[in-house]
Amino acid sequence: MRKRKPLRRRVLRFLLLADLERVDAEATASRMCMSSSTLRRRLRAEGTSYQVLLDAVRVHRCDKVLARTSLPGKTLALEMGFSEPNSFYRAFHRWHGKSLTRYRCELQRNGAR
């Protein structure tokens, strides 16, 4: 019998392809054919959480977008699924240890070399 892939991998794959403006834990659980409480419980059993996986996807997508565009922070926040730009700016600082503006300046400086 073929072993099923870990739930965290399936959730990551789903989130990587999903529209982050419209997806949430409930929609993700539904896609995995389970309730949101079962999703949370099974992810916890794998040593992770929905929020950790969502943040990983947001960081990945955000870095890809920043490497090729200069979208305004508000637009970037919406694309990453944040309803409030300030929440995005705080999360970005948590992910990278610097502000979005400083990060962009460093990208430009490193790209100019």
UniProtKB/TrEMBL annotation:
Domain HTH araC/xylS-type: 9-106
Keywords: DNA-binding, Transcription, Transcription regulation
Transcription recorded as keyword: yes
Family annotation (InterPro entries): Homeodomain-like_sf, HTH_AraC
Signal peptide location: none
Keyword Cytoplasm: no
SUPFAM superfamilies attached to this UniProt entry: Homeodomain-like
Record-linked Pfam families: HTH_18
Protein name: AraC family transcriptional regulator
Record organism: Candidatus Litorirhabdus singularis
